Amino acid sequence: MSLLHLAIIAPFIIAVFVPLIYKHIKSVHTGWFILPLPILLFAYFSSYISKTANKQVTMESFSWISSLGIDFTVKVDGLGLLFALLITGIGSLVILYSIYYLSKQREKLNTFYVYLLLFMGAMLGVVLSDNLIVLYAFWELTSFSSFLLIGYWYNREKSRYGAQKSMIITVLGGLAMLGGIILLYNMTGTFSITEIVAQADTIINHPLFVAALLCILLGAFTKSAQFPFHIWLPDAMEAPTPVSAYLHSATMVKAGIYLVARMSPVFAEHTLWMGLIIAFGLFTLFWGSFSAVKQTDLKSILAFSTVSQLGLIMSLLGVGAAALHFDHPEYFMVATTAAIFHLMNHATFKGSLFMVVGIVDHETGTRDIRKLGGLMNLMPITFTIAIIGTFAMAGLPPFNGFLSKEMFFTGMINALHMDFDWSIIIPVIAWIASVFTFIYSMILVFKTFTGKYQPEKLEKKPHEAPIGMLISPIILASLVIVIGIFPNIVKPILVPAIETIMPMYEFDVHISMWHGFNTELFMTIGVIVVGVLMYLGLNKWRGIYGIFPEKLALNRFYDGLLDSMHKGSYSLNRNVMSGSINHYLSYMFIFMVVLIIGSLFGQNAFTFSTDNLAPIEFYEVILTLIVAVSSIALLFVKSRIVSILLTGTIGYMVSLLFIVFRAPDLALTQLVIETISVSLFLLCFYHLPKKLTDDPMPVKVRNAVISVGVGLFVILVGLTAHSTKLFDSISQYYIENTYSEAAGKNMVNVILVDFRGFDTMFEIAVLGIAALAIFGLIKLRRNGGKKIENK
Amino acid sequence: MKTSNVILQSMTKVLLFLIMIFSIYIFFAGHYTPGGGFVGGLLTSGAILLLLLAYDLQTVRNILPVNFLYMVAVGLVFAIGTGVGSLIFDKPFLTHAFGDIHVPILGELHLHTATLFDLGVYLVVVGVTMSIIQTIGGDDE
């Protein structure tokens, strides 16, 4: 356990104390106690910047389940550090913001901060783990904490809907990813990412490679809200705005990007990886920006904008992977640089925009752009921040978004160097999507802050937000400008991260505002001109959104699927779980007989040999006959007491058989069990009618067939098991070791308590559970049940 | 079941102790000869069951004012505790230890932690059997 491990675990440790702090210190907002943690962590991780800039990778291992190759190995390299800084940096700002956003009188702050810390720790775990299983565990924990945070206002119907949706989709992807991880393990024999990367060249032709690739991508695409899995992100906006700013724009949704970047050294050699990422990324980029324009809710605009920007980063990573497939890798390397640079910039401007929207929502009581307008004079600082954020998002100078947008265009134009016919489509889609990005950015800022002020439609009288709420967005907006003007200050963080993704190349990054009059600049100018024209004429072409049929919407599909699954499982449950023990037993027996006899036939495994058989003794014949006669008689008996006695007879005869076969332990146990169960039957008997039925017993063909089948199956399996000896019996081991290893002479008992003590432990646990269940069934019945006696 | 049954009741008074002693013997004998916690526990429950049949549930409750569900819990604690105990000595879960110890008066004793585990089994079996029987038998009250 090193300091690095402690840094990841710290949020979880603090989370334990949050409820106590909340309960005992009411006068101070709980957030103040949480705030130092991410700031400290940010400072701690900052100390690694100089190390990773010198290509120094820190690895610390903590033994966990070493026998299965699962160790909590933490690795700080460029990529992990970039994300760790984002998580702790944005985390600090978001917590500061939340202190003013969430009222300490009205909200349940304890749960909020517990969930948020849970997320922070989990996300740090995702980006710093070198072991894939540990990464997966943290990955699911981020989904889980996101679920809890989206459902924070759980009494709202839409929050619950959004939480469930995000959970279902991201966990689906997470499970696929687990499958991919296991496939990778099958190919390489290790869960360590470092070691898998080292073996990347040898596994590319493995038959499981493509399957692993698809599974990992499914995990990444669902988490990073790529089309068609993006539908969960807009619904996730039901979460409190600090959460949306943190999880659903800056960090968690980028986990998919992280995974793609992290696994690039393994998979990028395969063209499918490149093709799928470019295709899904570009389409998501277009679809997100196109859909954002029609939204009327500010947070929905931002949600679709996030979807679109994630698609942008994803497609850049895809184009970056092309460096491995075509000549002149230098054309494609810029795309990888752009991806990481934009990822960082996106966190700054989108974070500030979410906070701005939160302020607007907080101060006016609505996020509907049809009701908002003219807030410019009332909230000048918020307006300024919004201008900076949206212009950066639209890709205008002198903000950081402009730089990464230009770089994005360079990457997309260079994609033309790929040797296939329709590569022109890549920059074209990129450009069209940028136009829509420009339009929704303008809608976001101008529909809110300019135009007609409509105080009658607002719930509150708006005024500028308190200074505490403004600090975080101001810091982010300043970063937008500073990075825009002095982009090279982020190089020490940027370059090591890029080199982690493309370890085979040497990167020399120069970012500058002015490149001369090149294609990229003309593309940006084109975006602005067309964007302004389309924004002004918005009402004229808005009709195209009506063309798309509502029936084909993905949300309809999702809802329908969920609904039919719900109904299907309900009706299945109702039909199968009838409550009749007769039915349950027949399901079990039919399944058992069909499965085992079927597979015995299928494998042609029947063998009957009469070797090694002992001669049949006289006693055995007698005892078996008694058992057989009693069993058959049991079927025809009408009196209950006789049937109890007959069952007892069978049991006692079986225990006598055990004695004949020289198994005193079994015989003893069977004898006592039989005595007790007969007595138990007699106790129950007191409650039951004397006669089984008045009518002559009906012959039920189905039951007869099942019982004959079970009988046959037991005989067949018994004979076959006797005749087939695939391996030596383990009994010799017990005979030899019972005294020397366990110092006992009764082998059966030594097996029970020592050699197979685990079995016994769980068996008695099951017995205990059964006793509790019977107690519950009888004492807690709805009719006639009395209160539990406390004796 | 309020019928008076003199023969059964008189027999029970003697047999109960015999069966009890036998069950304890069987429990300890399990290590070398047939027996063990499971059978021992069943025999004990058999003895209590005999008492219950000869008298009634209330008599059993008066003589043994034990919540048998607690007994199950205590038994499980014994069984799992023995397992956890080996972890303290940095051995895999459920590793048993044994040895010969000289005790005054009793002489040489062969002791084994498996007995503690078996005691857990014994308690669980008695607890489970008796709580089931008491629950079902006491249902008409």
Would you kindly provide a written description of the structure presented here, covering whatever features stand out?
- The complex is a heterodimer of chains A (791) and B (141).
- With 791 residues, chain A is an all-alpha fold.
- Among the domains of chain A are: 617-695; 733-791, no CATH class.
- In chain A, 70% of the residues lie in helices and 2% in strands.
- A two-stranded antiparallel sheet of chain A has the order 1-2.
- In chain A, helix 15 (271-293) runs antiparallel to helix 16 (298-321) and helix 15 (271-293) packs parallel to helix 20 (425-449).
- Chain A starts with a helix and ends in a 12-residue tail after the last helix.
- The longest helix of chain B is centred in the last third of the chain and has 25 residues, at 113-137.
- Chain B contains five helices and two strands.
- In chain B, strand 1 (98-103) and strand 2 form a beta hairpin.
- Chain B is globular, with a radius of gyration of 18 Å.
- The termini of chain B are close together.
- In chain B, strands 1-2 form a two-stranded antiparallel ribbon.
- The mean pLDDT of chain B is 84.
- Chain B is mainly alpha-helical and 141 residues long.
- Chains A and B meet through helix 30, helix 33 and helix 34 of A and helix 2, helix 4 and helix 5 of B.
- Chain A: Residues 701-782 form the MrpA C-terminal/MbhE domain.
- Chain A: Its main location: membrane.
- Chain A: The chain crosses the membrane at residues 6-25, 32-49, 79-100, 112-128, 134-154, 166-184, 204-222, 243-260, 272-290, 302-326, 332-360, 372-396, 424-446, 467-486, 521-538, 584-606, 618-637, 644-661, 667-689, 701-721, 760-778.
